[in-house]
Amino acid sequence: MNGKSVVSQPNDRASIRTAHFNFHGIKLRCVSTLSRPLDLLRDRLAPYVSESFSNPDLFFTFNSEVYGNPWRIQHMKPELRWIRSHPFWGELISDRLRLTDEKSIALIEYKKAHAFFRMSEETFTDSHFAARTFLLLPLIELLRTKGLFYLHGSLVSSPERSILFLGPGGSGKSTTAASFLLNGWKLVGDDNLLLTVDSNDNPTLLPLEQELSLSHEFASSLSSAKEPSMETKKVRFQLKDHPQWKADHANPTDIVMLEPERTSQTECKPCHLMEHLIRENPMAPAYPPLAKDHLRAFKALIQRTRLHRMTTPRISPDNLKTLPPFILNKLSV
User: Fold this and answer.
1) Rounded CA gap, 247 and 185, in Å?
2) Parallel, antiparallel, or unpaired: how do β-strands 149-157 and 114-118 relate?
3) Phi, psi (5° rounding) for residue 3?
4) CB–CB of 28/60 below 8 Å?
5) 8 Å CB contact between 17 and 35
6) CA-wise closest residue to 22 among 239, 228, 304, 210
7) pLDDT of 314 strictly over 90
8) DSSP structure string for 90-153
9) How many CB atoms lie within 10 A of CB 34?
10) Closest Cα to residue 144, out of 291, 302, 279?
């Protein structure tokens, strides 16, 4: 930890800016003296941009000014760590969680459903990290206070069934989901999903980001090739531009754990699946008052779906459309 202070950017502080988002009925208001974080949020979360509203449920406040000891990076203990392209860690004190990348700080106040940001321009040099990690994690934490729990996976749906693909990064979740779109299925969400359960513990999955990201090789098989994102070298398909692929929610019937390495085991045990869900979401146990509800939601999901495990099939643009029948045949065994 280098104890860097947060640098003020006077040219970016001409006026107070606001942005509003509506996530499945949960309303977020953002107030900022900086334009960059709001631009990133509007781009990443475009389907949820809303007109101005009163009585928001969640709040984001952005500033570039340096504050006192609660914001001092050098005093933070790395209690929670994430493996990303940059150093990133957090510290929980009572009902407040502080997150930092050594340059900027986010302070999440759970009981107030409010996240405060003190931003350095250095954080924005990697806009992918800023949008997908530094700004997204506080949003995920605030949504938890309203009963929407983060889940890392890809979910496709048809009138008969809905399949949730899980697995570590690089296991083929997004490409497998894309293959189902070529067979008339719809996509609820790729990579980032929100899980909610009703009073009877019936799980429903909702999208957090309504887009699909693919390598250029596979993107050209799905639709007319576009230029890949400069941050990730992948093509981003916004589902609002492809309504034939879009599903707003689904109740999963099957979970498929994709294994990038060959495995002879086909049984997917509930305990192993729970371990995976927690490992892919290190924030789940971070704040104890919310951890119980988050883990209960994971348990309800596992108990009410058929569980499967398979080695990620060999995928190429040539066999992309024939992949779903192969997988569905495996699930029926």
Assistant:
1) 9
2) unpaired
3) 70, 25
4) yes
5) yes
6) 210
7) no
8) EEEETTEEEEESSS-EEEEETTTTEEEEE--GGGGGSHHHIIIIITHHHHHHHHHTTT-EEEEE
9) 18
10) 291
Residues in a beta bridge with 257: 166, 309
Sign of the alpha-carbon torsion through 63, 66, 70, 71: positive
Tokens standing for 23? 């996530």
Confidence of residue 7 (pLDDT cuts 50, 70, 90): very low
State mean pLDDT over 198-217.
89
Residue 78 C-beta-side C-alpha neighbours within 13 Å: 11
Which residue in the block uniquely carries the two structure tokens 């941009």?
49
Q: What angle do CA 241, 326, 257 make, to 5 degrees?
A: 75
Q: CA distances (Å), 177 to each of 206, 266, 303, 332, in order?
A: 15, 20, 23, 18
For residue 64, what is the enclosing H or E element?
none
Residue 174 CA to residue 304 CA, distance in Å, equals: 23
**How many angstroms separate the CA atoms of 297 and 235, rounded?**
32
Please give the structure tokens belonging to residue 269: 């045990």
Token pair listed for 310: 């398979």
The packing angle between helices 288-303 and 270-279, to 10°, is: 140
Q: How far apart are CA 315 and CA 173, in angstroms?
A: 11
What's the CA gap between 256 and 200, in Å, rounded?
A: 24
**Max CA-CA distance within the chain?**
63
Distance, in Å, from the CA atom of 33 to the CA atom of 63, rounded to the nearest integer, reads: 6
Q: How far is Cα 90 from Cα 100, in angstroms, rounded to an integer?
A: 6
pLDDT in tens, 30-72: 999 999 999 999 998 999 999 999 999 999 999 985 444 444 5
Per-residue CA distances from 205 to 54, 192, 198, 310 (Å): 27, 10, 11, 22
Note if the pTM is more than 0.90: no
Contact 96, 151 (CB under 8 A): no
Closest CA to 63 of 23, 99, 43, 34: 34
> What is the Cα–Cα distance from 161 to 332, expressed in whole angstroms?
12
Secondary structure element (H or E) that encloses residue 36, with its range: helix 36-44
